[in-house]
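TEACHING EXERCISE
Course module: macromolecular assemblies
Task: Read the component lines below, then compare them to the predicted structure of the full complex.
Student: A.B.
Group: 4
Components provided:
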Amino acid sequence: MIEVQHLSKRYGRVTAVDDISFRVERGEILGFLGPNGAGKTTTMRILTGYMPATEGRAMVAGFDIFDKPIEAKRRIGYLPETPPLYPDMTVREYVDFVARIKGVPSKERRERVTTTLKRTHVADMADRQCGKLSKGYKQRVGLAQALIHNPDVLILDEPTAGLDPKQIIETRDLIRSLAGDHTVILSTHILPEVSQTCQRVVIINNGRVVAVDTPDNLTARLRGAETMFVQVDAGGADPVPPLMQIPGVIRVAVSDERGFVGALEVETERGSDIRREIARTIVNRGWGLLELRPMRMSLEEVFLQVTTEERHEDPAAGSSESAEPAAGVVHE
Amino acid sequence: MSNVLAIAQKELRSYFSSPIGYVLVGLFALLFGWFFYNHMAVFVRNSEQMMMGGQTPNINQHLVRGVLLSSAVIILFLMPMITMRTYSEEKRSGTIELLLTSPLSDAQIILGKFLGAMGLYAAMLGVTVLDMLILFWFGNPEWKPIAAGYLGLLLMGGCFVSMGLLVSSLTKNQIVAGVATFALFLFLWVINWIGESAGPTTRDIVSYLSITEHFDDFARGVIDTKHLVYYLSFITFGLFLTAKSVDSERWRG
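Instructor-supplied answer key:
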């Protein structure tokens, strides 16, 4: 549905997007992850035909966005970072206007506007002026605007920014319900959002793709060794040596100690589930097993690992270019 | 075409959903009325003298023409307020992103904005027709020269609008757009005065370039193809440059 090949965008000497390639299949939700300034918005703007790429091609819904922009744009719904609302129009007027310029047939327009407003939970504000809406409503009117012409491809730049937790859940549910009929790309720097809504993740940093995979694979692939979190009430004894004797255990580290209760991180060989052995060892000694759970590497850690690795890899390449996105990581 | 109309309607609605549309229509009606009243007072005084001298005063030549010429100057002052926000406001608020990612060509967007601004301008002119009707009530002027005069005003305004769109497309700040447009219009107006003190060749060139100079014949009630061609090509050129400016903006990002 979307195919991006060797896309680059340079502003003068600054490279915002550097040779990005990826594909999105029909009906898929792709998460676009990266620190601020990584090139997410630029890539999305190129895909929606807002600006041309310096190099490379992008096919959206079967049309080259540069050669056949009108055809491609007809099939794209786009929610930019700031919802593009006209403050003095009412919500209904605004969505109706967008429907007109997106080419919704005039006969269907009225009904389409009503159903879209309902679907994005803004029907109760239909006669309010866009400029007087709260941030959350603005964001959802922006979403309504992107959905109005029932596009094949939806490109959403931080769709949940500025929403309250309830609205975030509603919006995520809405986005998830769109998968199947629509192909969705959404960008975000909120990591749980990606694992909850997206089937695949593209992590970009400094304008480059550093990882593409499903959220689960990403966490698994980068995990290396598996770690168990174990909390033991050893009654004053040192629980580390017995645990070290269990086959498959590589390392036992004390993560923190509260009185007699020791919290341990037991690192084990990959693929060997030795939770039973650990439990048996502890119980057989008459100690209290308070907690035993696998510690998965969260997407946060994956993200940090991937984006920092990238920076260590090529410290020589363009010091001025990497300086800015690097700062973005620190802020977050 | 329906896309163009959609944009034009949106523009027109945005003028009248804020005070700007009403202020412009009202202000123009007021100033036009004031000039109308003054010309009328002068005309009444003069016509008495002329009648005593055995001449018949012509309402079209001695009253309407003067009013239209003065109103051309008011338009020059008010027009930047119509055009200054057209593009700059969309850029500032980010709505330009909606327009440029919709299945619209640049030409459709620009034409829509042009028609929208012309709609407001036409409304401003429409109100002044009331003043002209007073003439028909109390006298018997010819309507054709007046119609020609209004056609001239529309075309001249079109030049200003296309120019204003161009300036507005160059900046994000509508105040900058307004001031720059105003400076440009002022320059195109005073260029006449520069021409008058120069040699004959320079004068010809300068007066050809001046937007207001071409309005003279229309005010007199004459529709000369020369001026029609000038105005229409000026408008086309202005809109063309706007299209180029919007396109280059896209490349620069």
